[in-house]
Amino acid sequence: MDHVPRDPAAFVAAHVHAHPVALVPELVLHQADDPIGLWELGEGEYRSEQPPPFWAFAWAGGQALARYVLEHPDLVAGRRVLDLASGSGLVAIAAAKAGAASVRAVDIDPLAIAAIELNAAANGVTVITELGDILDADRGDADVVLAGDVFYSAAMAIRVYAFLRRAVRDGARALVGDPDRAFLPRDRLRLLATMDVPVPHALESTHVKPTSIWEVPPPATRTAD
Q1: What HEC string does 16-66 produce?
Q2: Which of 190, 136, 191 is nearest to 167 (CA)?
Q3: What is the percent of the chain with per-residue pLDDT over 90, rounded to a whole number?
Q4: Please, which residues bridge with residue 212 across strands?
Q5: Disulfide engineering: 62 pairs with which of 54, 105, 121, 148, CB 3.0-4.6 Å?
């Protein structure tokens, strides 16, 4: 990918600092002290051709999903987990802490991969990272697919929902954490829980975002007349 810093790990380490996560204080996440400053870091190494630095923040959907996983460890314990569009790796780390047999965190941004590895090490867990776009592929061997805050654009929402539906059709469970983003297909999901999540005001224009955990339901089973 063009304009990736020569040393993604060094770039990430230089722009974030470790703090407990607001809704998940038992986990530590490297987060940007100045969200807007990092987002606008276009004159330096970070260029507009790169995805926004989703890896530098604890987004509401990811916080809620991480909280839910830690409070319901039976969801992932002993199972293979895929964290889709992982960003900082927060949800993946929560799954590993909750006893997942393995956790695979996928993102298209090399800086996110560096952040996930840094954050996993800080929390003393093992997370397998994968750089790439897998939305047109399948879930691999995952028993559980997790996705935090992924319905932020129409194009992304269509692809993510199709991926999650395929995963469920093939036998996995698929859970989503989302603070009611515009493109969330809520009429096609099953509500599991709702919680208030502390968020950076600079990013969300509020200090708290009501955020829900949803499950992609399995395909309806046809019954004989």
Answers
A1: CEEEECCCCCCCEEEECCCHHHHHCCCCCCCCCCCCCCHHHCCCHHHHHHH
A2: 136
A3: 75
A4: 178, 194
A5: 148
**Backbone angles phi and psi of 10, in degrees to 5:** -70, -40
CATH superfamily, domain 8-215, is: Vaccinia Virus protein VP39 (3.40.50.150)
Q: Going along 119-189, which residue ranges are E strands?
A: 128-131, 144-148, 173-178
Looking at 12-21, 84-93, 118-127, 176-185, which range is the least confident one?
A: 12-21
168, two tokens: 């469920």
Neighbours of 181 (CB within 10 A): 17
Closest of 96, 196, 90 to residue 147, by C-alpha: 90
Give the integer Cα–Cα distance in Å for 214 and 131. Answer: 26
pLDDT digits (tens, 9 = 90+) for 139-157: 999 999 999 999 989 999 9
Q: Which of 69, 122, 58 is nearest to 100 (CA)?
A: 69
Question: If you search the block for the tokens 């996983």, which residue do you land on?
Answer: 69
Half-sphere exposure of 148 toward its Cβ, with a 13 Å CA cutoff?
32
Token reading at 109? 């941004």
pTM higher than the cut 0.85: yes
